[in-house]
């Protein structure tokens, strides 16, 4: 459930409700539900407990979560969160994705080409400053600029004062603004990874299902000044793991939920946006499958991207199924009706009612834009477009730039842009050709922009010419273009940069429109949040924003099709699961597990479920007990949890974790990684 | 390149052009290009030669071609044409698709549950009769009824007079009407099928590619009165097969081409219809893949349908790529411009120019209808809807019914409706749930029809209820419903019949609209055909209509990416091909081939290409030499041939055949089918 693939135009939104259901909630670390925890679980998290957990938590900027697990910088995350790096470190001769990896000494640890890890160290409420910068007299265009400027200023000042990565996060869809400050680790090295065959045992078929038997874990180490970093806050390994029915806590970065959406916005998701995204994902999936069928090496090259697409497709299917369930929508509609009635009944709140109309209008405009963008895309084209836009944006002061080019984010931007990770030009050409064809279909072949893009050739001939002619595969050349500034872009004869210059004005035109729609939504959802605070109270949590949140709930099974699904599986079950699916792809245990079958304690708990409220982005989150000890590692949610994007339920929805004991047992018995086991808890 | 999956709203259209290119042409057997053959190949087909070939040719009503190859009723076709039957005859215990089949004696031959084979025995021009029935004073609605009535009358009278299956075929999009009469074989038994592993060696990756190494062949036998049928016209097996660069002839049933389409209609295909169909196919493909991943038995159940979808998807991709090539479109546009100028310059022809405007208008209406149908579909739902419509239609005289329910076609209809072929309810439920979800997406969840379909449940819950509750799995129950007539339908409490009754009015509403658009197109394309006959002459051929045609061209290789692709492969090449793709799915030769590796003459030619103009539906067509002897078996076209749907080229486009010698060698050495070999040519 990694979230990397972000399609569509949904902005980050928020939710509030007085009566959260069951263990609903992705809580802010600076606003934990202390009363609820005391009442429900007789547990009161101390400030130290919370700070320790917060600072032991790690964010993977590629779209996942993690935690520190030793004083010498060991970081535990999912195999599928690390797989982007495992893939980049792999070659046909050393396919880490397939055979796994173990560094026997720190000298053998492999440096990731472009990983950035973030440790949250400080949160500050800057709502007043941001809100004061945007006045009700401003046009939407002015409001976009003013908000962008004040946020860039806050971030720049915070960065200059602290040296920390500083990001203003919009919460409750615009109701609150918090400044998040992170310590950044960019020297990250691979220590251990199991084979994909056991990390993703059961493959796409078992993804988002339960019971499961996956060792979806990988260990990295962060370095500073070429030495293992000294880490003050890290999680101690629990001796026994979690106890059934007791509460556990998940500290991670849920990517995005949309629980505050109005009915109009939900219907847009259900009838238009999600079907459109699904269709795009299926297209990408078949394309990558077809490329992969041509040879084993092709399959290897496409694998990581294919997994990401399949994962997204299955996740969206779950979300859409939730919205297509009449009961889910009926509950939502009733809640909205009640809120609107309360707002209209109160003269002080009544002016807020216009927010719903605003959302109806922005939603209509989003519907009109759907599928009308420029679909052209590939890794190398993305680099070309970024170089073109960066040269243009750098002509402006930081506060007036598109946020991704502002000074506060520059370092992270360049790390991606200048990554030495391999780009396979044959695959990139296939992606480019298909995305050109898609643009023709979306805009109509005869559209002047399409004719400019094609330059008289078929999509595949044009892609061959572009990828064959570009010099952007070389990082040195990218740096040279960037160093030349706007002049170098204007004069460039690189065919991909020339294509980017053709497409850039249209990309910017659409960006202006969507930025303004986002601004209108922010103002509207801020009003809706205000209405909710006024009628339902403030003891609540905002929608997910890929920032650190605390979720919790007991370890417990559930009923499905009349059967009781137990909370646990054990390691022996993996062997039975293989037997049941004999001969099927993705159900073959790796050689290491077959060799260790006798030595392994088969009773060791393997995977387990709990009711904690998570979503894509939470992958790799540590699961801890009351004492703050590591008892598990989130890696998935079951299929019933996917509608959690819109509404939480704990009837069947469950988070799925690898049990901490299984990781230790596998490290010891299967992988002979005694040195890691020794280091845990140190 | 089987064509079974017909999506969208394209009608059968026709083409004519004075200067056909290279070996362009799918020629009518009653209007063969005798002059061209004499001039180009110094070959003059006698009337006997043509009649013998025509009567030796066989049509598979599931969507393919074939030929008689013995006096005792042996029929040769492709494995992938027969696979529908192979699949229906398979069970988890006897998976014919996987392990193949050989009947050692006629007693062991397996009866197909619902195959219908047609042998064309007579063609008659009925253009005048049909045209006189439709006058220019009629409204479109009246024209639809009048044309339907006169065609039903011709067919009924022909059936009554001859006992032959009689079908009026619309040629040149409405320019000509011919009555085709067929001898029908419905007792068809399986004699021999190889393993899918060698029939479809290289799988989806190699499909529509060349060079190839596929034994895509299967042999059936037709029976009459429970005995092998006596066949007068059958093809003798050539001793040596085809000679390079010499002309060969293909006699088969190309399904549909669209070469006469106006630019407006082509742009609709390019920008809207083909992208829409591709998107539907990808959805179906992923759905079937996902179902198949769950278990080996699921994979078996979904396999045949999955192959059909993948095959269609790849074929459409090739067609779309052709239309997205600016050069292809430029040629088409220039030809249309020249024709329109000639029409407008000639006062006698000028009234025909309105046809282009008509097509522009019908195309616009088709665009508005696209994706606005009712997508609900599954095998069992299809049966329910057919029962409902049949009961209604049977209230009317045959000539007023929807054509598929007229008396002339009744026997073929009932053979399908009462087929004992297995329907897997778990798969059917998955198909039904997804098609309900698709309907919600296409019409909007809140549409009253969608609400009626859902009945308050989610798509998957509703599908479970419908499939769980229906009694239509039993053929006896279907017959009982049909016997009860309209009354039985009205009173039926079967949930699928109830759903069909809900959906039927909307299906009919759309049918009326598309029938009228088709009628307008027929009248318009008749005018365009007239304009072409007047300006370019009549020595031409109509677009494909899934009726028997003759195509021809020399056996010859082609150049691709600077490389010369030879016309032939040989059987030894299959073993090399396996080695090159070691470990990849679909590149593993079956055990029988491994065992026979030494005994096989590896120099035996395996597959070959020629320039004959074919398309989906030609699969299984016999390839014969000047003497009318069987030298090959069409099973595919290369990727470059797919744009042949819109325009023929012989630069790289090639038809791909199994060499007759390879079939004989495999029967002898690999399958030990001496009795079949002996029977060939008898």
Structure description:
The structure is a homodimer of 682-residue chains. Chain A is of the alpha+beta class and 682 residues long. Chain A has two domains: 27-116 and 186-259 and 543-679, Thrombin, subunit H (Beta Barrel); 263-534, no CATH class. Helix content of chain A is 46%, strand content 15%. Chain A is built from 24 helices and 21 strands. In chain A, the strands form three sheets. In chain A, strands 2, 3, 4, 5, 6, 7, 8, 9, 10, 11 and 12 form an eleven-stranded antiparallel beta sheet that branches. In chain A, strand 19 and strand 20 form a beta hairpin. In chain A, helix 5 runs antiparallel to helix 6, helix 6 (140-162) crosses helix 20 (495-536) and helix 15 crosses helix 17. The longest helix of chain A has 42 residues, at 495-536. The model of chain A is unreliable at 1-19 (pLDDT under 50). Chains A and B meet through helix 8, helix 9, helix 10, helix 11 and helix 15 of A and helix 8, helix 9, helix 10, helix 11 and helix 15 of B.
């Amino acid at each position: 459930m990694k979230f990397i693939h972000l399609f569509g135009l949904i902005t980050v939104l928020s939710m509030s409700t007085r009566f959260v259901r069951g263990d609903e909630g992705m809580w802010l670390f600076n606003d934990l539900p202390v009363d609820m925890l005391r009442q429900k679980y007789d547990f009161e998290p101390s400030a130290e407990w919370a700070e320790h957990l917060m600072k032991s938590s790690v964010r993977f900027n590629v779209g996942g979560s993690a935690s520190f697990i030793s004083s010498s910088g060991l970081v535990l995350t999912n195999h599928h969160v690390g797989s982007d790096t495992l893939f980049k470190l792999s070659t046909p001769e050393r396919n880490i994705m397939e055979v796994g990896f173990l560094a026997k000494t720190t000298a053998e640890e492999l440096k990731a080409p472009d990983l950035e890890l973030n440790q949250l160290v400080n949160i500050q409420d800057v709502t007043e400053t941001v809100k004061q910068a945007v006045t009700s007299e401003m046009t939407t265009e002015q409001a976009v600029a003013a908000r962008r400027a004040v946020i860039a200023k806050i971030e720049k000042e915070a960065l200059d004062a602290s040296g920390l990565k500083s990001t203003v996060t919009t919460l409750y869809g615009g109701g609150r603004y918090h400044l998040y400050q992170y310590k950044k680790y960019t020297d990250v090295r691979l220590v251990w990874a199991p084979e994909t065959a056991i990390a993703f045992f059961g493959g796409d078929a078992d993804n988002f299902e339960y019971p499961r038997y996956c060792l979806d874990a990988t260990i990295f180490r962060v370095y500073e000044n070429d030495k293992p970093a000294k880490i003050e806050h890290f999680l101690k390994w629990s001796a026994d793991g979690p106890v059934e029915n007791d509460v556990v806590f998940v500290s991670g970065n849920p990517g995005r939920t949309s629980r505050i959406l109005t009915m109009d916005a939900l219907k847009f998701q259900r009838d238009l946006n999600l079907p459109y995204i699904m269709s795009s994902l299926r297209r990408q999936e078949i394309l990558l499958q077809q490329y992969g069928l041509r040879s084993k090496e092709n399959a290897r090259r496409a694998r990581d991207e294919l997994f990401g697409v399949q994962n997204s497709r299955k996740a969206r299917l779950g979300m859409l199924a939730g919205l297509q369930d009449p009961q889910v929508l009926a509950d939502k509609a009733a809640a909205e009706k009640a809120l609107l009635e309360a707002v209209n009944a109160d003269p002080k709140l009544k002016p807020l009612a216009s927010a719903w109309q605003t959302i109806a209008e922005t939603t209509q405009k989003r519907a009109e834009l759907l599928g009308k963008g420029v679909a052209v895309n590939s890794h190398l084209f993305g680099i070309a477009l970024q170089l073109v836009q960066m040269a243009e944006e750098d002509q402006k002061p930081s506060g007036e730039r598109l946020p991704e080019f502002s000074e506060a984010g520059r370092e992270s931007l360049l790390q991606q842009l200048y990554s030495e990770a391999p780009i396979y030009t044959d695959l990139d050409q296939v992606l480019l050709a298909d995305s050109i064809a898609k643009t023709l279909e979306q805009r109509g072949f005869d559209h002047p922009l399409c004719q400019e893009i094609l330059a008289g050739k078929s999509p595949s001939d044009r892609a061959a010419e572009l990828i064959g002619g570009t010099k952007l595969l070389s990082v040195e050349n990218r740096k040279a273009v960037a160093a030349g500034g706007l002049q170098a872009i204007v004069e460039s004869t690189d065919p991909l940069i020339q294509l980017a210059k053709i497409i850039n004005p249209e990309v910017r035109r659409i960006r202006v429109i969507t930025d303004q729609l986002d601004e209108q939504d922010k103002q509207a959802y801020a009003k809706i949040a205000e209405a909710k605070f006024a009628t339902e109270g403030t003891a609540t949590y905002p929608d997910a924003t890929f920032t650190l949140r605390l979720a919790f709930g007991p370890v417990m099974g559930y009923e499905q099709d009349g059967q009781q699904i137990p909370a646990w599986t054990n390691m022996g079950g993996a062997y039975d699961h293989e037997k049941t699916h004999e001969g099927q792809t993705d159900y073959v245990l790796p050689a290491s597990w077959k060799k260790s079958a006798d030595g392994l304690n088969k009773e060791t708990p393997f995977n387990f479920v709990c009711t904690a409220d998570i979503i894509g982005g939470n992958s790799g989150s540590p699961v801890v007990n009351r004492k703050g000890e590591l008892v598990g590692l989130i890696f998935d949610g079951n299929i019933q949890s996917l509608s959690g994007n819109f509404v939480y339920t704990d009837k069947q929805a469950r988070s799925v974790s690898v049990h901490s004991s299984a990781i230790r047992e596998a490290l010891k018995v299967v992988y002979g990684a005694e040195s890691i086991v020794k280091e845990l808890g140190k």
